[in-house]
Specification:
Number of helices: 5
Shape: globular
Number of strands: 20
Strand content: over 45%
Structural class: alpha/beta
Order of helices and strands: EEEEHHEEEEEEEEEEEEEEEEHHH
Largest sheet: 9 strands, parallel
């Protein structure tokens, strides 16, 4: 069975002829439930309120929910007790000619701290679908650091969907790296419902060959004094394409809220396509929102200097591209995960 789905819908549509309001995926095979390897201690999911998680809005939207339902996959449920600290790792490797989906539900109780590291890999030969949908509920003063590493084969379709609700004083720290797959769609929606709740997100990506990358990030400010920081840094080369939708939505009642969105893109070839839609919506007067983008090419003076020292043009481009990705990698703060990134880049830049 295959579905036609429309994901990553822009919160306030722009001109339809630009074809930037959403991402349409035709003929997506319904995946099978995935069997991840989980490392780390979590509390039993007793008395789980599935309805509360189903109500959490995600970045990719309702069609991604439909794909998850059709897969029949049961969520991996992670519960972190109040006031405790945990580190949990989730590994998933897609086998040859497989299509897999893993839904994840995370409940971070009041005052708890969780570092959740998720990596997705696949065989280099042959393509397939690997999809994640992660919903998080952060209670008062809970802190969650979610690290997601997309390290799939070059022929894959990668879907990565995140939705979160943050209570009073809760903070979601999101670090994502997207380095593989022929086509990647990723979305994140964080509802900052609580007073002084916060979202801090760093996204790194490498687009090469004919890869297509489509992003949709939303910070929904509802709580007084809530704060969001959305940062993206990437490299595009060959004929890769990237579209980033970034929305900061100050809703009524979010007095004193602050939102900031930044993107830094390095374009290494003339054949790349880079599109960005920064969007600020405002229904509250006492707020502060900023957005900006830096889009540029490799500095010719730097290129000339390094080539005069014996490096080839390709070697210089690879070095600069790796530096961009590794700058985001440093935000992970985990030696094992950083080693995975370095190994993947070594093979990608051969």
């Amino acid at each position: 069975m295959a579905l036609d789905i429309k994901v990553n819908r822009l919160s306030a549509p722009t001109w339809h002829w630009l074809k930037m309001n959403d991402c349409t995926l035709n003929g997506v095979d319904v995946p099978s439930p995935a069997c991840p390897v989980v490392e780390g201690e979590v509390a039993p999911a007793e008395g789980w309120d599935s309805a509360s998680f189903a109500a959490i809005q995600t970045g990719m939207g309702r069609d991604m929910d439909a794909l998850t339902r059709e897969s029949g996959a049961e969520p991996l449920r992670l519960s972190i007790p109040a006031g405790e600290e945990r580190v949990v790792r989730v590994h998933l490797c897609r086998g040859l000619e497989e299509n897999q989906l893993l839904p994840v539900e995370v409940l971070a109780r009041a005052g708890s701290r969780l570092t959740l590291l998720m990596d997705y890999t696949s065989e280099r030969d042959g393509g397939g679908l690997l999809a994640f949908q992660t919903r998080l509920l952060l209670e008062e003063n809970a802190q969650v650091k979610l690290v997601q590493l997309q390290l799939q084969g070059d022929a894959d379709l990668a879907l990565n969907d995140v939705g979160a609700v943050c209570g009073d004083g809760a903070k979601l720290r999101l670090v994502q790296l997207f380095l593989g797959a022929a086509e990647t769609c990723s979305g994140c929606c964080a509802a900052l419902d609580g007073r002084k709740s916060a979202l801090e997100a760093d996204t790194g990506y490498l687009g090469r060959n004919q890869q297509h990358i489509d992003f949709n990030y939303l910070a929904l400010h509802r709580g007084v004094g809530s704060k969001s920081e959305l940062r993206a840094s990437g490299v595009l080369r060959d004929t890769a394409r990237k579209l980033l939708r970034g929305t900061i939505d100050f809703q009524n009642g979010a007095a004193g809220a602050e939102g900031d969105e930044r993107e830094d893109v390095l374009l290494l070839d003339e054949g790349v396509v880079n599109q960005t839609i920064p969007l600020i919506l405002c229904a509250e007067e006492d707020v502060q929102g900023n957005h900006g983008a830096t889009i540029g090419q490799l500095d010719e003076d730097l290129l000339f200097y390094l080539m005069s020292r014996g490096m080839t043009g390709a070697a210089v481009e690879n070095m600069v591209a790796r530096a961009r990705i590794e700058a985001v990698c440093q935000q992970i703060g985990d030696e094992q995960a950083e080693g995975q990134i370095h190994d993947y880049l070594e093979e990608a830049f051969q």
